[in-house]
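Notes, p. 3: input format for complexes.
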Amino acid sequence: MTITRQPEWNAKEAAALIAPIVASESGPVLLCLQAVQAYYGHVYSDAIALIADACNVSRADVHGVFTFYADLRETPPPAVPVRLCAAEACQAVGARTLKAEWSAACEASPELATLTGVDEPIFCLGNCALGPAAMVDGELIGRADVARLCQAIDAAQAQERPL
Amino acid sequence: MSIWFVPRDAAARSMGADAVAAALIDRGETVVRNGSRGMLWMEPLIERAETRDGGRVGWSNMTAVQIEQTLPSEDSEHYVGPVEEIDYLARQNRWIYERVGVTDPLDPEDYVRHGGLAGLKNALAVSGDAVVDIITTSGLRGRGGAGFPAGIKWRTVAEQSAQPHAGESRDATPHKYICVNADEGDSGTFADRMLMEGDPFCLLEGMTIAAHAVGADRGLVYLRSEYPDAIATLQAAIDIARERHWLGDDILGSKVAFDVEIRVGAGSYVCGEETAMLESLEGRRGMVRAKPPLPAIKGLFGTPTVINNVLTIASVPSILARGAETYAALGQERSLGTQVFQLAGNIAQGGIVETAFGITARALVADFGGGTRSGKPIRAVQLGGPLGAYLPDDKLDVAMTYEALAAAGGMIGHGGIVVFDETVNMADQARFAMDFCVEESCGKCTPCRIGAVRGVETLDKIRAGQDVEGNTALLRDLCDVMTQGSLCAMGGLTPNPVLSAINQFPEDFQSPVIATG
Ligand SMILES: Cc1cc2nc3c(=O)[nH]c(=O)nc-3n(C[C@H](O)[C@H](O)[C@H](O)COP(=O)(O)O)c2cc1C
Ligand code: SF4
Ligand code: FES
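Output follows (680 residues plus FE2/S2 (inorganic) cluster):
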C-alpha cells in the first residue's frame, strides 16, 4: 500500500494527470487536488497554480479548497501513517489512554515517530463497536493497543517494496 | 466438501479475518468472503455450510493460529451453533440488511438468488409516479438524521424538469441527479459502511429505482475517504452492474438509463450536511448553503437532485419487493418500518440491530448489547451521533421513534447508540462536543464559528474550577445563541450534548479535573 518514494514533481506530468478530469467534470477543482495527492502523496505548492489555470479559477479559490479539507496535505506523508480514532465511541473504550500511551511510545523512540508521523486525530473510522480503532498505513485495526499498532506497522513495512 | 464463510467486512478484517481466510485456503478449504452478520464482538465469526445455500454453523473470534492447528469442530469453545438461531440475529427483523452476512457481496448470482432485483423489476413494471406513491405509502423517512419523508422529496424532484448544468448553454443535455449521502461522519455509526461492503448491489438497485421514480439519469455516491474498503467494494459492484446491464443505457431491457459514480470525500464532517455535500461535489469548499432553494429543485449544478442517506435508499428495494403496506405495518406513530441501530462504544455485544422502530433504548443496550464491555455500570448513552444528547442510565426506557425521542430531548439521528461506563467524565465529553464543532464548523456563521471557540474556553474554565457558576451561566447563554443563530445543525445542535451533560450530570462540572479532552 505504502508508496515508499513519492514521485518528484513534474509539471508536464501533473498537467496530463488533471487534463482528463478538467475535460469531463463540471466542478473539477477538488477532484484535481485529490488526483495530485493520490499520485504525489501530497499537494505540491506548484499544483495550486497549475490547477487554477487548468480550471480557469483563481489561485485563491484553489488554495481555499485545499485548506478546507483535512485530507489534503502540503507535506509528504510519513512512511507508515498511524491515525488514532478520537471520536466518542472510541473515547468510551480508552481512546484517550491509547493516545497518551502512543505519544509516549513515539517520544521514547524517535525512529518510530519519524516512521509513523504526527498522529493527526481522525474522527470515526466506522469501527465503533470494536474500539479503540486505528488506521495503520490504510489498514483498519480494531481493539487497538500499542502492541497491536506495532504489529501492524511491522506488517506494513514487510509489505513495502522499493519502487 | 464444506464451504467456509469468512467476512470481508472491514470490522472483521480489523480483527484478523484475512489471515483466518488465508489459513483456511492453505488447508485446501473452499472459502467464500461474505459480509458481516453484524455481531461484531464475535469477529472474526466464521461459518461452515455443506452447500452454498445450506444451513450454517459458526465459530466466533477465530484466529489464523487456531486454524493452522486444526479445523474448528463442534466441541470447540468458539462454537456458536447454527448462526441464524443466535438470539441476537433471530430477534431482529432484517429488511435492509436481509442479505448482509449471508451472500458474497460481489457475486451477482448470489444477489439474485437471495431476492435481489425483485424490487427493481416491480418498479420497472409501473410508472415512476406509481413508484413515488409506493414510497410515500410506505412511510419511509430519511435515515441520515432529519427524518424527512422520502416520498415527498421524490415527488418534488419528479415534478421538476431536468436541467442543464448551471452555466451551460440551454440546449446542453439536461440532467437530474440521485446523490447518495455516504459521508457517515457520526461517531458510533457504521451501518452505511457495512451495507456498502456487505450488499453493495442493494444500494445500486435502490438508486436505480429512485432514478426511475423521479426521472434521474445520473447517480453519485459521496463516500467518505475513511472507508477504503467500502470504496473498493462499491466500485467493484458498479463495474459488475454495468456489465450485467443493471446500470447503463438499457437497464434490464427497459428504457431506463442511469449510471452511478463514486465521489470520495476529503475528511470533512460538515460535508455530510446535504448542501455542503453539494458544494463539495461541485469541487468547492464544503460551505453550507442557505435554503431555499431546496436541493430537490436546484441541487447539484443547479439541477433537481434527490439527496438521501445510504440506508434510506437501501430500504427501497425491499419495500418494492415486499410491499409498502407490509413495511408500514412495522413501527409506531410516524416512525414506520425498520431502523438499523448500531450499538457502539463500551458495549459487550456491539454491532447491527435492525428492528422495527419503537424498541426501547434499554432493550437495545441491555438485551441486545449485554451491557458494558468493561462490566461496570452504564453511566451515559449518547444517541444520534456527536450532535445528540447524552442520556443517563435511568432515562433509557424511551421508545426509539422520532416522536418519543424528540419528546425526551433526544434524537435518533443515524441510529448510533454509544455507551459509556461509570469512568466517563461528562465535562470532558462536553468539551469534546464543543471542540468538535470548532474543528468541523464550515465557518459560515458567527455563532457556530466563534461560539464554539468560546464554548471550549468556557468549559476549560469550568473544568479548572474557575467561577463555576458564572461560567456555567455564560455557557448556557452561548448555547442559546448557537441554537438560535446557526444556519445548520452543526452549530444548532452542538448544544445538545453540551447541555445534556451539564443538566444530567452536574456533579462532573463541580470539581476541577486535570485530564484534557
Ligand atoms: C453537520 C451535519 C452532518 C450530516 N452528516 C450526514 C451524514 O454523514 N450522512 C447523512 O446521510 N446525512 C447527514 N446529514 C443530514 C443531511 O443533511 C441530509 O439531511 C440527509 O443526507 C438527507 O437524506 P435522508 O433524507 O435520506 O436522511 C448531516 C447533517 C448535518 C447538519
Ligand atoms: S452552523 Fe456552523 S457548520 Fe452550519 S453553516 Fe453555520 S458555520 Fe457552517
Ligand atoms: S468512533 Fe472510533 S471508529 Fe467510530
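Residues 11-24 of chain A form the longest helix (14 residues).
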